[in-house]
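Recap for those who missed Tuesday's class. We walked through two folding examples back to back. For each one, the amino acid string is listed first and its predicted structure tokens come directly after. Nothing is annotated here on purpose, so try labeling regions yourself before you check the end of the notes.
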Amino acid sequence: MELLKPNDLFRLTSGDTITKRNLYDLIQFSKVSISQYWAGADFIIGNTPQQGINWMGTLPLLKAVIIKTKAGSYKEDGWYDDNRTIYNYSFKAKDGIISYDEKANSVLINQPQLLYPILLFTESKEGWVFEGQFSVTNLEDTYVVLKRNSTSIIESQSSFDESPSKDSEKMYVNHLKAERSKSVLLALKDSNIFLCEICNIDYMDKYNIPYIEAHFKNRIIGDPADQLISLNDHALLCPNCHKAVHVVMKSKDLDYHQIKSNLILNYNRE
């Protein structure tokens, strides 16, 4: 199959093989307005074709992340299960040091909240094999856990009006940086608290799964890197409630406590 425009990536099905030259040219020349691969500014593919991680669009309004992985590139990389539903993919490192602010890493860290699809390609003799659309399900110290999407994430995303406005975009990106603070995530993993404070579901009790998500409760003024952020600044939420909070947060000028009260009220009415 030949890709003629960046949006052709969304028409791929698992098992389709793209030549390395075709994908290289698509990434390289998606940035050139006079190129045959140009599809508009929203479909520009960032990063160089030689890199393992590329992204379509501009954070936080990405349309997709493209991962190209070669066997043996990093020790953590590879399929976790025989059914090829879970893939471990290493963060980009320089001289063995990982910067979580590196854009190639941040597009992975932000994926669970912004919900753009991750398009995974593995290397073969014929070129790049499309494995399917994936999402980040867990953040480890040196890698992310990718899980195959059972349905198109683009379809599920369309039911929400979650695109931040120009005025609120910087504030929302700073919010996500605070929410995805590496120190907070590490502390969260060790907290052994898996109870959602809105719907009161306990993932350990209900599913026997040690999982919970952190939502940053305060408004960010300036760069979150300049502020001391602790676990106490976060609310522990299940994925459903966390998503609902973000949807309300980007459509109404309410603080977390107001959103929480409204959601609890609606939840109790059911």
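Example two. Treat it independently of the first, because the proteins are unrelated.
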Amino acid sequence: MLCYKSAFSQYVFLLEKPADEKADLSFKRPEPSLVFFGEDDGSPGFKKHNQNAMKINAYFGSAFSDFTIFNINTGKLVEYHNTSGWFFFYKPHIKKAYGMILSNGKEEPLIISDPDLYLKIVTDYLNIGNTDPKVGKASDTENNVNAREEMAQIMKSTFVPDQNYAKRLIKNVNIAQYKKDYKREEEFQCSCRERQTTMFRDSLLMDRLPESAQNVYDNQHQLLENKNFKNEEVASSHKYTRNKDGLIEKIQNDLGNSSSLTQFLYEKDRFYTVNIENAEAISFETFYLNDQMQCIRRLSKKSDGTVIWDIYYIYDQFGRLIRESQTDCESFYQYDNNQDDAYSSFKFYTLEPKMLKFSAKMSWDGNKQTIVGLNGFSEQTYRSVSIREKNCKIKTYQYDGDNKLTSVSVTSCKN
């Protein structure tokens, strides 16, 4: 997982506009944007927040005319019409005194409350660099040529993985595209190939939310297609093409008004994904594998050679992920015993200086799974309770930091 994504996007945006409230800012088009909020309370933290906000304005200057930067100060409502849905930042709904809201115009925006991370996350998440010639640029001509040559060589791969390669990779690689089947979930294994998820505001399942989803699987329980809906209209979709052994060959991604193709290419000790938009390769990732076919490094680059992220993964003697590291953050996973393959606790730290920013605890009680998210001060930020039934139905209840129910999702076989 990406460190900043898992640490900062935790159910803080509303899906409907608060009644009788007027938006201080409204992004009617799905576009990248940056918003600073909060008022001067005289604290050292706000002083750093204000200083780093000014640095970001100076860093990007006026060169990015399509990248808007705002400061709403004491304002409390910002609405986003992104390609995956509408999201509303409502200051009274959160406990953060100040921070930065970052949106790529597609998914749910992020809220970043650590000023030291502002610039790093903006450049990484939006995949954009500095325009000031006084600051060294990573995307020079040599890197541009080398990256494009590397992608060209990747696309020429002639390696043909066999059935054993596919079986071991699917089971052990431990990335999002190849979902791991945990032992605790085996007894709730679902046989139906089409499943649907419906969202509600209340526990009685009477007040339905506009978001829903549908997934299609093959006979080996591997995902073939995912569709996300807003008011029963398709907001985004991902269609998987797999070979006869289950390895992904490509993913067709349709996100509102944009579409892209992710091509998978395999080698003996690694595999690649190349992202293609308008028939042009714009970025690629390399997943390095150990002899157990586990991913031990994930290196992502743009076509100009700029590194997007570089993540290292460490496993224990039982083949379980225990640590993932980047240059500015790291995460640790712990397990209750040597038999469990699903982690029981997770901690995320920023580095230099090292500070705990977010943690989560996961527990099981029969068919009930509970996940509690905590901030760096051990205060609850959210709670999720999932109940699995043997008829392929899963009910998940989401609560905020005050244990107030925010939503209920119901996943079941499609009728």
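Answers for example two:
DSSP finds five helices and 25 strands in the chain.
Confidence is low (pLDDT under 50) at residues 4-10, 130-140.
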